[in-house]
Design a protein that fits this description.
- GO terms for molecular function: undecaprenyl-diphosphatase activity.
- Its EC number is 3.6.1.27.
- Keywords: Hydrolase, Membrane, Transmembrane, Transmembrane helix.
- The chain crosses the membrane at residues 22-47, 54-76, 96-117, 129-150, 156-177.
- The chain is an all-alpha fold.
- It has a single domain (3-180), classed as Vanadium-containing Chloroperoxidase, domain 1, CATH 1.20.144.
- It has helices spanning 3-13, 17-29, 32-48, 52-76, 98-116, 125-147, 153-180.
- The longest helix is centred in the last third of the chain and has 28 residues, at 153-180.
């Protein structure tokens, strides 16, 4: 057996009707449209607070993560877990998990923005809580994809790793460029 198959079998063995309902909601909220909506809202807040370049950079970073995820899906063309283990009907490829990658891109970009803006210190409990919430949400979204049989565990783990890399790198580049421009 492989770790991917073992993880899927474990999830199938531990499914319940209530758990499936919860994971279906999580995976729906954590889809690309959901993450895009949150990204735009946070970007608008940044723009309103005078950080136009960082707001636009956040949107560009998450969009870049989405583009990279799609390019990898079509380059690699990995099949999804089989039915009946798969509880969702999806026609795209499996690797990497788009839910995991795009949510991790947003989460890591958001946390990097907090650092860039100097919002992470012991006096900023709300910003630390926000960072914890987006991290937990990303982990739960990825977990839901394996639970529902939409992805193999490795699809999700690689999605998280690539998303984290894109998110940090994107905001670091934007921050550096906007600093050079004197903004």
């Amino acid at each position: 057996m492989s770790p991917d198959r073992d993880a899927l079998d474990w999830m199938v063995d531990h499914r319940s009707a209530a758990g499936t309902d919860v994971m279906t909601v999580v995976t729906t909220v954590g889809n690309t449209a959901g993450v895009a909506l949150v990204t735009v809202v946070v970007a608008l807040v940044l723009v309103r607070r005078g950080h136009r370049h960082l707001g636009l950079g956040l949107v560009a970073t998450v969009f870049t993560g989405w583009l990279l995820m799609n390019a990898l899906k079509y380059a690699i063309r990995r099949t999804r877990p089989p039915v009946p283990e798969r509880l969702v009907d999806i026609s795209t490829y499996s690797f990497p998990s788009g839910h995991a990658m795009v949510s991790a891109t947003f989460a890591s970009a958001f946390i990097t923005l907090l650092v860039v803006l100097g919002a992470v210190d012991s006096a900023r409990k709300r910003t630390r809580a926000a960072a914890a919430v987006v991290t937990a949400a990303t982990l739960l979204i990825g977990f839901s994809r394996v639970y529902l049989g939409a992805h193999w565990l490795s699809d999700v783990v690689v999605g998280w790793l690539l998303g984290a890399l894109v998110g940090v790198a994107g905001i670091a580049v934007v921050s550096r460029l906007s600093g050079r421009a004197g903004r």
